[in-house]
Write a structure and sequence with these properties.
Layout lengths: L12 H4 L30 E6 L5 H16 L2 E6 L5 H10 L6 E4 L12 H5 L9 H6 L10 E13 H7 L12 H15 L5 E3 L3 H10 L15 H16 L5 H5 L9 H5 L5 E5 L2 H8 L4 E3 L12 E8 L6 H11 L2 H11 L6 H6 L7 H13 L3 H7 L3 H17 L5 H19 L2
Parallel strand pairs: 1-2, 1-3, 5-6
Antiparallel strand pairs: 3-8, 4-6, 4-7, 4-8
């Protein structure tokens, strides 16, 4: 595969084609009047707090763009990095104290909807048109306000320890011959035993990652109508597969039983060569290119009822209660202009959200073949999963329902049927609370 492999429009056509029903949580603040053009010269000498969580190599890429922003505007950006697990608590505390930051990078903007700047106020009604349709729609409320800017797309998928597979004499899957889930479990278990590893498959402690498994078996926790949609039989098959893996020692039980429902990455297991297969996503490529001490590669998602992974993405938001909301809005816009977003994509191994970058392509400096695997997965991924990820209730349901219920199953406190029932009822409650 060529080292300059590009992101093409067809790669994320499923996102662009997907219309998501708007759903505004809470009580939306009164629509603000058009603010008119922003004069960046007015920001000279001002300071913007930017609350940020990092996936790895994106921190260096972000700091480089912040330096450019400061040079061009004369403003100072105070980058405040917080752990992803603490992000919502940190932002809500600052909002409640009356001291929100100027801007933030978030996984879901809906929890802060009443505190965010409408980007259309500063940049016009047509502002969303420059972004891929699916994620642009996910950035807006049902009454047409654009409260977030999509900054990057992600795709879940497995990474494999090539050296460990070679030592075990177990072949790897390919684009034309991907694993089934049963085949992946069998292969990973064989490699685990041959290399005396701690586990066979490592999975981030994340309802988002578990949604990849649900999708493979043909179901999602929330459907395109933003309602609870889990198919009990299909979900049961997915959970039985993972629970059997945990019961055999192929999936670490303790990892899932620690720290409640808080997110925890399993990258340390993989980098320590204690698991030959790691279900994570494309954001690990740049980090592993620098830190892994063994040969590794991205692999296609395993198929069950269907193939493909599960999409994600991040947003940038500006807060209306900040000292200068116009500075926050301008910063968010500037960071997602073509030149800045392209530079971030190239260095952080993100997938672009802008239509012009999708059309022109992004050159990844290394590990282009691995990025190509993740890019190919986007075409294979069922369109409904983009709606699932964009649903207002998805993030809280994935974290507060799916993760603890799966942990209870793994711990032996309940059976599969009970777990499925609890997930369905818990997700339905989250949907009701979200106002969808």
């Amino acid at each position: 595969m060529r080292a300059d492999r590009r992101v093409r429009a067809a790669v994320i056509a499923a996102v662009a084609a997907l219309w998501l029903a708007g759903c505004a949580p809470g009580q939306p603040e009164q629509r603000q009047q058009e603010a008119g053009p922003i004069d960046p010269a007015s920001f000279r000498g001002q300071t913007l707090d930017y609350v940020y969580f990092t996936d790895g190599p994106d921190e260096a890429a972000t700091r480089a763009q912040l330096a450019r922003f400061e040079q061009q505007t004369g403003a100072k950006v105070n980058l405040q990095i917080v752990p992803f697990a603490d992000l919502e608590q940190t932002l809500q505390a600052r909002i409640n104290s009356g001291k929100p930051p100027g801007a933030a990078r978030v996984e879901s903007w809906r929890a802060y909807a009443d505190s965010l700047v409408d980007m259309k106020r500063y940049f016009g009604a047509g502002y969303p048109d420059q972004f891929v349709d699916g994620v642009a729609i996910q950035s807006q409320t049902s009454d047409g306000r654009m409260l977030a800017v999509p900054s990057d797309l992600t795709m879940n998928g497995p990474l494999v320890n090539v050296d460990a597979f070679a030592r075990a004499g177990v072949p790897l899957p390919s684009e034309t011959a991907p694993w089934t889930w049963d085949q992946m479990v069998a292969a990973a278990t064989a490699v685990q035993k041959a290399n005396r590893m701690e586990s066979a498959i490592a999975i981030d402690k994340s309802g988002h990652r578990l949604s990849t498994v649900f999708s493979a078996y043909g179901t999602t926790i929330i459907g395109p109508d933003y309602r609870e949609s889990l198919d009990p039989a299909k979900a049961g098959q997915a959970l039985d597969t993972l629970n059997a893996l945990a019961g055999s020692g192929g999936l670490l039980k303790d990892f899932w039983l620690e720290s409640g429902s808080r997110y925890k990455g399993a990258n340390d297991q993989f980098l320590a060569q204690q698991a030959p297969v790691y279900l994570s996503g494309n954001w690990q490529v740049g980090q592993f290119a620098k830190t892994a001490t063994f040969r590794w590669a991205a692999a296609p998602n395993a198929c069950a009822a269907r193939c493909g992974g599960f999409p994600g993405g991040k947003y940038m938001v500006a807060f209306s209660g900040a000292p200068n909301p116009a500075l926050g809005a301008y910063f968010v816009d500037w960071m997602n202009r073509a030149d800045a977003q392209k530079a971030l994509d190239e260095q952080a191994y993100w997938l672009p959200t802008r239509k012009d970058l999708v059309a022109s392509g992004v050159d990844y400096p290394q590990r282009a073949e691995d990025m190509g695997v993740f890019l190919a997965e986007i075409n294979k991924t069922p369109a409904e999963t983009y709606a699932t990820n964009g649903a207002p209730a998805f993030s809280p349901a994935a974290k507060l329902v799916v993760v603890p219920q799966f942990a209870a199953l793994v711990a032996g406190r309940q059976d599969t049927a009970t777990t499925v029932r609890n997930i369905k009822s818990g997700v339905a409650e989250m949907v009701a609370k979200s106002g969808s």
